[in-house]
Each structure stands twice: as structure tokens, then as C-alpha cells.
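Hey,
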Amino acid sequence: MTTNALARPHSHGAGAEAPPKTKSQLLRSFDVADFPALNGREEDWRFTPLRRLRHLHDGEWSPAAASPRHEYGDLPEGVTVTTVGKDDARIGSVLTPFDRVSAQAFTGASEALVVSVARNAAVATPVVVRVVGQGAEGVAFGHTFLEIGESAEVTIVLDHTGSVTLADNVEIAVGANAKVTLISVADWSGDAVQVQHQKARLARDASLNHISVSLGGDLVRQYVSAEYTGPNASFEAAGVYFADTGQHLEHRLLVDHGVPDCRSDVNYRGALQGDGAHAVWVGDVLIQDVATGTETYEINRNLVLTEGARADSVPNLEIETGEIVSAGHASATGRFDDEQLFYLQSRGITEDEARRLVVRGFFAELLNKIPVADLRDRLLATIEERLSRAGA
């Protein structure tokens, strides 16, 4: 099954059409064969080391002996978790893949985990779903559907741990007037590889606060995309990542403003240390010609702690109408602020402790957005352990 935003025909090889002019014209398809084989020169893949994807991108993979298991314990009132087949009408209703690995994940997943929050439910207890890897040998595929009913309020945590080679898709359907906080944590073991696409669709007056934290894994690439189906909806995306020696952590976003009077705010921060540590952030915001009254801003900041680490940061805005409230973007990558260090040291704080304080302060604003205290404390402890180990 193939769809395309502008119903444009597509072909491959000699005589192929020119690349799409805007993100809204990307090929969208559930069929892996509709996407050409990747060679690493594509704009959306030029930062990703394909040789480390364990054949997720070329179809030459072997299946894993066991897929990641899901753990979620007792569920609060108004929340259900079920497993459904791919023939369930909800699956694929929000997310149509626009890259080869996402299409492979859709094809390869035999079932989907559905988390449903009832209409008007005010869920006081966070809903925690743990995705636990069972080994990095062989490839696993996954699919998750988050269904939030009209006027519901809920916090959902997707906590990824263990060892794995995984390509998966997450669909997020946010009903009218619903208020959702979604925390997605990649705290994998050091040998894990994950390529994930999360797609959110927001109805009128809906609010989604999306928080992404990436700390573990050998290679983690997450694509978050969002679109609106009604006015006065709000999408806030915050991200924290810490790339250590040899790690590749890549975050890509596409916020598609296709209706009037909606808002988006993107704020990602990353730290890097160690030889070969590589962080990539690419933020795309599209304001279509019908999206009058849009308010949007995106910013990415990176703190490079040692020699040998590299950060790539690419913010993009596509604006097709002048009738907007505001639109802007910013990006900054740098090392420690010597003035900050001097100020702290002049008050009797050692250089090592001063550096740790700077990094804590760099992340504090975004980590404090996590409303789950024990999770927040765990992530802070992981960051502290890395800083202590490196003597930062």
C-alpha cells in the first residue's frame, strides 16, 4: 500500500523524478520495495553510519531469537493495554512510513501493543511501559499504538532497556482537548541498536508534551514527527542526550503545521564526551500555506566536554505563508564557558566539581520537566556516573 501527500507518481533509477521540494512531498508507503536501497549519501541518512545498523537498512538481516518483552504491571483506572494483529484498523492510521527502515519495521512486526486511555479519564498515576531487550543477536521489529481519548489527561513512559537490535514504530493519537505527557527513554545496554519512528497526530485543542531521553546504546536513531488535525493544538518537544565514547545518538524531528492556529516548541540539549562520540540533531518545521496563525520555535544546544567528540546540528524552517504569529530557530555547539568555571572556582569549588555543576545546570531545565520522580532521579544518576567516570 502506497500513499503520497501530493499524489505524485514516483520511480527509481534512470529518469527518476527530482527530490521533493518540501517535507510534505516525501514518499510515504508501507511497502519496503517502494524505497530505494540506502547508500549513505541521502540527505536524511548522511550522518548515520549505515555499517553499524546490522542490516536494518538493506534487508540482509537475520531474525532475533526473541523479541523485546513488554512489562507494565498494574494499570490505573481508565487505562488498558492489549496486543492486536496488524489487521486492526488503528494500526497504520497515524503513521505511514517515509523511510525504508520504518517501512521494514511496519512490515516485520507481526502484532502491535496498544495502550488506550479512556475518554475523559484523568489518570493521576504515570503509565509505565518497559520495553526490555532480549539480546542483540538478530533483528527484532516492534509496533506500539498510543490511543488517548478525548479530554483525557495522562502521563505515559516508554522505558527502553536491555540488549537489542530493533526497528520499531510508535503511533500516538491524541484526541480533542486531551493533555498528554509522553516520556520516551532509550537507556539500552552498550551493544544495542535502535532505529525508531514516532508519529503523533493532534486533534483540536489537544496538547502533547513529548520528552525524549537518550543515554544508552551503541547506536540510537529516533525520528519524531507530528501533525495537527484541528486548531488550537500544542506540541512541545524536549530532548536530553549524552553521547559517550563511540556512541552515535541521532534525533530527527518533523513538525508539520497543516491547520491554522497551532503551536510547537522544540528544545533539545546534548552533551558529548570521549573519542568517537557523535550526536546528530535535525529539526524540520513545515508551515503550510493554510497554517495561518502558527507559533513555532526550535532550538538545539550541544556541550562538547572532550576532544574527539562531534555534534551535528541542523535546524530547518519551511514557511509557505506570511500570516503567522512567530517562527524561529537556533542552534549552538560549544565547550565549557571559562567564565562560569572561573566564577565557581573563585568561590572555592574545585575544577572537577565546577564542571559537573555546569553540566547539571545545562540539563536541569529539561530533566525537571519529567514528572516521574524516580525516573528523573535514575536518569540524573546515570549522567552523574558518566561525568564522574570521565573526570569531567
